[in-house]
Amino acid sequence: MNPAIAPLLLAQAPPQQAPSLFDNLPIMIIIGVIILLLGVAVLAMSYNYLRLWFQAFVSNVPINPLSLVGMSLRQVNPKTILEAMIRAKQAGVGSDPTTGITIRRLEAHYLAGGNVPRVILAIIAAHRADIDLDFDRAAAIDLAGRDVLDAVQTSVNPKVIDCPDASNSTKTTLSAVAKNGVELKIRARVTVRTNLSQLIGGATEETIIARVGEGIITAIGSAQDHLQVMENPDRISKAVLNRGLDAHTAFEIVSIDIADIDVGEQIGARLQADQAEADTRKARAWAEQRRADAIAHEQEMKAQVQANRANVLLAEAEVPMAMAEAFRRGTLQTTGPSGNGSAG
After folding, report:
1. For this UniProt entry, which segments traverse the membrane (predicted)?
2. Nearest to 129, CA basis, from 121, 137, 118
């Protein structure tokens, strides 16, 4: 190109405009909104974690703020773990770093599906009642499906069970018969408390009710007279308690109290009357059978007589025939007065 023409071409070209800030405005708005939302989320999370960390700090429960974030990532509720740890710390339980209550052990129990708050409340209640219950046993009871807090409360304040239990049975009383045949209807109340050492794998309340009912019926059945039972109901309680009915159960029987005794039917007399009626029907049946046998034998004898008569008639009918046959053959002999026979 000619150097003289280049300045003229540059002078004729349109001037280039500088890039404007408004050209990238939508993209900048979107980026700003995203940054704002991320900032709000970070601030909210930081606020929650800082609040929990500060609550733990003032409660003398040291914890790393990053541990709170790790709990959230492991699907663990940090608030539940920290509140349980603070309760245990303030109550002075589980201070042993090896077998006691630690954040790591609480988190492990939470991940196993346990109820961390009720376990801690149960340990605190047991500590206040001077009951030996450590975290391992409480966690095992909780994971076994038992309500550990209710078990501790029942161990402190015994509960009363009705025998029979009207809520699970249509009967409201136990029926037992003494040796004199008189029926007694009894309603008992059993006071039990939890045996924490046998709570895992131990039998439940239904077994206690069944065993107590069996013991009461056995005790009444061994009595000679129903009046002895009504005069001294405590003998039933003592006899049942001495059998050790709470073995291998989750409860310990404190007492068995007879709440009510009613006299029922004369079972012995009714059974004797039924037996006498049955014997009468049996005797009638035997007599009727013997009568039928006699009638049958009589008919057999009559038939035999008729058969014998028929045989006699047959024999009598054969005599003329034999005589006629003898005449035809000329072998018939007659006997004269002198006794000598002669041919006819």
Report:
1. 25-50
2. 121
Q: Which among 189, 188, 133, 180 has a CA at the least distance from the CA of 156?
A: 133
Domains of the chain, start order: 45-156 (no CATH), 159-270 (3.30.479.30)
- How far, rounded to the nearest angstrom, does the alpha carbon of residue 32 sit from its chain's CA centroid? 63
DSSP string, 92-148: T----TTTS--HHHHHHHHHTT--HHHHHHHHHHHHHTT----HHHHHHHHHTT--H
Q: What is the pLDDT of residues 158-198, one digit of tens each?
A: 888 888 887 777 788 888 888 888 888 888 889 998 888 88
Q: What is the dihedral angle through the alpha carbons of 191, 197, 199, 201, rounded to the nearest 10 degrees?
A: -130
**For residues 147 and 204, is the Cβ–Cβ distance under 8 A?**
no
Dihedral angle, C-alpha 277, 281, 282, 283, nearest 10 °: 100
Q: What are the φ/ψ torsions at residue 330 (nearest 5 degrees)?
A: 75, 25
